[in-house]
Amino acid sequence: MHPLSLPSGVAAAVWQGDALPGAGEAPACPTGFAALDALLPGGGWPCQGLSEILLPAWGLAECRLTAPALSRVLARGGEGQAVLFIGPPEPPHLPGWRAAGLTAASMVWVDTARPEQRLWAAEQALHCAQVAAVLLWLPPGRGQAAGLRRLQVHSLQGRRPVFVFRPLAAQAESSPAPLRLALEASRPLTLVLRLLKRRGPAHESLIELPAGPEGLGEVLAHKLAARAASPAMASEVSDVSPSLLARPVPRPGLHVVAV
């Protein structure tokens, strides 16, 4: 039966493969980047299903891409909520995450090396009411497909974002994640992404996102102007924005769970 011949009530409930699901059709959390939200089903990171982000190296974009959404999720969940960092290559940089809106009390680092243990920990976390979001790092390796499929099934039962970070080489492998993004370049104030997979039509163009900390552009412009006027002035403390200096730096207090 041709879709146009369906009764109006039925036709409205049928999703067409060349259409991008709207905000009411796919549970999502805004990414904090308007240009990216406009391209994602539901207008943000999926809250039911995996978001797989492929990186040429660890530490290039994990914080800048996910922090705006994580701060919103924590604020919405209320006191006692936490974000799980499972298998990050280095302990999370607390000052950076604090500047992005997270606190040490809301971050739990799960320290485990084996990929199967990381996948298992992520599955268990999705059934904990206090977990607001999960960030999972998976190193290169075969035999992870079954674990990712199980994690995708578990993620459908909750309403929280789940981010899986994998090496860029994994783009040649199939993935159960309904959303896949690859980082093409990371510059001081810009991230360049490629949308590999989404629920909806393909998107071929590169995506450029402003990714500098708030207020950094103004600081850099001021420093460049000062350097142009007098090179000696570039190193003066007065060139640094007082609002950035006033931001509190948390004491080490990250919760660590060894698996």
Description of the molecule:
This protein has 259 residues and is an alpha/beta fold. The protein is 27% helix and 22% strand. The chain has a nine-stranded mixed sheet, with helices on both faces. A two-stranded antiparallel ribbon has the order 1-2. A hairpin with a 2-residue loop joins strand 8 and strand 9. About 7% of the residues have low confidence.
SSE topology sketch:
Elements: H1 8-12, E1 28-29, H2 34-37, E2 45-46, E3 50-55, H3 62-77, E4 82-86, H4 94-99, E5 107-111, H5 115-125, E6 131-137, H6 145-155, E7 162-167, E8 179-187, E9 190-197, E10 207-210, H7 216-229, H8 242-245, E11 255-258
Parallel strand pairs: 3-7, 3-8, 4-5, 4-6, 5-11, 6-7
Antiparallel strand pairs: 1-2, 8-9, 9-10
Pick out its properties.
single chain; 259 residues; alpha/beta; nine-stranded mixed β-sheet; two-stranded antiparallel sheet; 22% strand
